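Hi V.,

You were right to ask for the full record rather than a summary. Here it is.
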Amino acid sequence: MKNEKKSIAKKTAKATPAPKATPKKTATPAPTAKAKKTAKATPAPKATPKKTATPAPTTPTPRTTKKGEAIELLKKGISLDALMTRFGWQRHTVRGFMSILGKTHQIESTSVEGVRTYRIA
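Predicted structure:
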């Protein structure tokens, strides 16, 4: 009996096949018009620089630096306040600058009526 039930179950399983999956409908893209083929763009010819007469060589202008300007002023003699206003420096910056210049130049410092004046000897 058990065998009969199995065979009946097999027969019924074979008799009713499983439903097949149907593919989903997808929107097909509309046909597009073919783009016209255009000629390859060629780069524009490079402009050749115009030849001009070469100017006469000039002597380069000397670089002006704050250090150079300060040395020129110190040759004449200048006060600490004048250096501060001339270069926009603070008092401690001028003193530090004078300290650095003292390593390579002989600097004289004089005080007249409370005004400190520096000069390169």
